Amino acid sequence: MEDNAKVLEEGKKKMDVLIQKSLIMGAKKIASQISNVIRETGTYHNVTGNTRGSIAWGIYYNGNLLTYDTPYDREFTKRKTMVGGEFDKSTKFKAPKDSKSYAHYYGFEASVEFLKSYYNPIAKGISIVFVVGTHYAEYLESRKGLVVMSDAYQFVKNSGTSLIDRGAFNSSSLAPFSPISSAPNELSF
User: Fold this and answer.
1) Which residues make Cβ contacts (< 8 Å) with residue 92, sequence separation at least 6?
2) Which residues are registered as beta bridge partners of 179?
3) What is the CB neighbour count within 10 angstroms for residue 41?
4) pTM score, whole prediction
5) DSSP strand E in 39-153: where?
6) Which of the chain's termini has less CB crowding within 10 Å, N or C?
7) Are strands 93-94 and 87-88 parallel, antiparallel or unpaired?
8) How many of the other CB atoms lie within 10 Å of CB of 165?
């Protein structure tokens, strides 16, 4: 009887690993879709490339960071951030004097630092956290009325579980579960 319990416990552990890997693969696809929405809907000038280059996501499982990505850091980042009052000759852009930035930095580095230090309050299950690592992203949205990341929130809110249905798990071998139709925020195993 002990041998059966041991074999069953080992099988359960292997299945848990398989489920976790499947969830992470699907979460990466969902994160990629949302990153693209953030990238495509941004209406700001992106002078140094730091705001768009700092779009980042982290995947947390049972509250712990498993993986993260800054998908556009090398594509967009041209230089470190500008400080308040600094003028960029090539774009004729002047950083606002009331900017809270007094030091130059790379936005994607700030995003990674945030994701690594973030305490995720979801203790059980999987979650995806998005961040833009420039201090002035909020300034761009709240004071200038430009879109940095708020449209992505609406996209996720409006998409709901259809993000999962839209190909995140396009193969039954990737997801050994299916969404519950009566409880759209839960998964059944």
Assistant:
1) none
2) 187
3) 15
4) 0.70
5) 55-61, 64-69, 87-88, 93-94, 126-132
6) N
7) antiparallel
8) 13
Q: How distant, in Å, are the alpha carbons of 53, 62, 70, 145 from that of 36?
A: 12, 26, 12, 20
The token pair at 10 is 């080992």
Cα distance between residue 112 and residue 57, in whole Å: 9
129, 187, 118: which is closest to 156 by C-alpha? Answer: 129
Task: Provide the 3-class DSSP secondary structure of residue 31.
Answer: helix
- For residue 109, which amino acid is it? E
Backbone angles phi, psi at 61, to 5 degrees: -125, 125
Tens of each residue's pLDDT in the chain, 189 residues: 678 889 999 999 999 888 888 888 889 999 988 988 888 888 877 777 778 888 899 999 888 899 999 888 777 776 666 666 767 666 666 666 665 555 666 778 888 999 999 988 877 888 899 998 887 788 888 888 888 888 888 888 888 777 766 555 444 344 444 433 333 333 333
Q: Quick check: 93 and 81 in contact, CB under 8 A? A: no
Among 72, 74, 36, 60, which Cα is nearest to 116's? 60
Determine contact, residues 54/134, Cβ cutoff 8 Å.
Answer: yes
19 neighbors 189 (Cβ within 8 angstroms): yes
CB half-sphere exposure, 16, CA atoms < 13 A: 9
